Amino acid sequence: xxxxxxxxxxxxxxxxxxxxxxxxxxxxxxxxxxxxxxxxxxxxxxxxxxxxxxxxxxxxxxxxxxxxxxxxxxxxxxxxxxxxxxxxxxxxxxxxxxxxxxxxxxxxxxxxxxxxxxxxxxxxxxxxxxxxxxxxxxxxxxxxxxxxxxxxxxxxxxxxxxxxxxxxxxxxxxxxxxxxxxxxxxxxxxxxxxxxxxxxxxxxxxxxxxxxxxxxxxxxxxxxxxxxxxxxxxxxxxxxxxxxxxxxxxxxxxxxxxxxxxxxxxxxxxxxxxxxxxxxxx
Length: 282
Description:
The chain is an alpha+beta fold. Helix content is 35%, strand content 15%. The chain contains twelve helices and ten strands. The chain has helices spanning 2-19, 47-53, 64-67, 71-74, 91-103, 128-140, 148-160, 163-166, 221-224, 227-232, 242-245, 274-281; strands spanning 38-43, 55-56, 85-88, 114-120, 126-127, 168-171, 173-174, 179-188, 191-194, 199-200. The longest helix has 18 residues, at 2-19. The protein is globular.
């Protein structure tokens, strides 16, 4: 029994060393100095509507802890939903999300597609991993009301929810002028087909100088990542793809049943191994 305890202790050390960064080091997949200029969103809304109205968040909750926890998926009160339209900086991630949605949609085909929108990011767009890392750094240095305990809790959430893998970028509103184009996607014989022609938005305004915010100033952090939410967040929350249930004002909220396995809606994140979770919580 004592030997088993020593083995488990060694496993914790080894797994933590490989799974967690030292003092909030930036994950190799996220570099705050690399501008995010183009993001993607999967929608049911057809282009003729999106190019006129854009996409608008339905709720008022700016808490990114709530958004990444899966809570919006089971909260049906619109105003209590996120104040965010969710996107991803990874086009392949968006296509994978579309595939999973189409695989669970009967009758999917060229006449019942989803649309993959390419969107120009600007200073009103916010990188979710960037916000987490900004708050982690603030906690390590005891700034903006954050403490090392907040930093540790955020770091744990970052590596146990699909936050890094999703590469989420959020905005309260996506203006029509930011939407570059749309491509229809559908499932046929188990494969995702994409309309090679695509649909260009004639109202799109190109500006290569704009990019999403990667580093959040201290003054903006408490609204996005409230200290109380950080310390009260569920340890075993599975997380969710934000695009699954941001309930933006469109047909594409992709509202999911209450018993949905939210984590399965996203690709595998850079999460701690399940073995480590078993050891920690035993």
